[in-house]
TrEMBL record:
Keywords: DNA-binding, Elongation factor, Protein biosynthesis, Transcription, Transcription regulation. Belongs to the GreA/GreB family. Residues 6-75 form the Transcription elongation factor GreA/GreB N-terminal domain. InterPro entries: GreA/GreB_C_sf, TF_GreA/GreB_CS, Tscrpt_elong_fac_GreA, Tscrpt_elong_fac_GreA/B, Tscrpt_elong_fac_GreA/B_C, Tscrpt_elong_fac_GreA/B_fam, Tscrpt_elong_fac_GreA/B_N, Tscrpt_elong_fac_GreA/B_N_sf. Signal peptide: none annotated. This is Transcription elongation factor GreA. One of its GO terms (biological process) is regulation of DNA-templated transcription elongation. Necessary for efficient RNA polymerase transcription elongation past template-encoded arresting sites. The arresting sites in DNA have the property of trapping a certain fraction of elongating RNA polymerases that pass through, resulting in locked ternary complexes. Cleavage of the nascent transcript by cleavage factors such as GreA or GreB allows the resumption of elongation from the new 3'terminus. GreA releases sequences of 2 to 3 nucleotides.
Length: 158
């Protein structure tokens, strides 16, 4: 059995949109580019042809990857979740116990993670450390710069 991939509705929509774009725009464009490059004759020394074939290979690989992810997607409606315990979809406010720096992250699927926008993947070290914890709990997270202590200040649901 293949594992389900938890994701928010917006994350699922992003995957669907990328898949649609690759199928309806990128794939036909690369097919035209290959056909045009073939008309230039000798394929063994045709850089345009080889570049187009390489692009086609990338597109087909990405389409297969996206089809797999979409088929295994488990879309979780975050608006129906609640509680004080950290789980997928929660927006969590943490404070670094050494620097008193506060940060807020939403726990999302791996494909929707974007730290700059405050979304971290459910399998990231911070997410794994805080899953199942509640407000007031202190957690230790192994980071590239060593262990960091965080306290959970808040758990909200958007």
């Amino acid at each position: 059995m293949t594992a389900k991939l938890p994701m928010t509705a917006s994350g699922y929509e992003q995957l669907q949109e990328e898949l649609r774009h690759l199928r309806s725009v990128e794939r036909p464009a690369v097919i035209k580019a290959i056909a045009a490059a073939r008309e230039h004759g000798d394929l063994s020394e045709n850089a345009e042809y080889h570049a187009a074939r390489e692009r086609q290979s990338f597109i087909e690989g990405r389409v297969a990857e996206l089809e797999d992810k979409v088929s295994r997607a488990e879309v979780i409606d975050v608006s129906k979740l609640s509680g004080d315990t950290v789980k997928f979809g929660a927006t969590v406010t943490l404070v670094d116990e050494d620097t008193d720096e506060e940060m807020t992250y939403q726990l999302v699927g791996e494909d929707e993670a974007d730290v700059k926008q405050g979304r971290i993947g459910i399998t990231s070290p911070i997410a794994r450390a805080i899953i199942g914890k509640s407000v007031g709990d202190s957690v230790e997270v192994d980071t590239p710069r060593g262990a960091k202590q965080y306290e959970i200040l808040g758990v909200t649901w958007v």
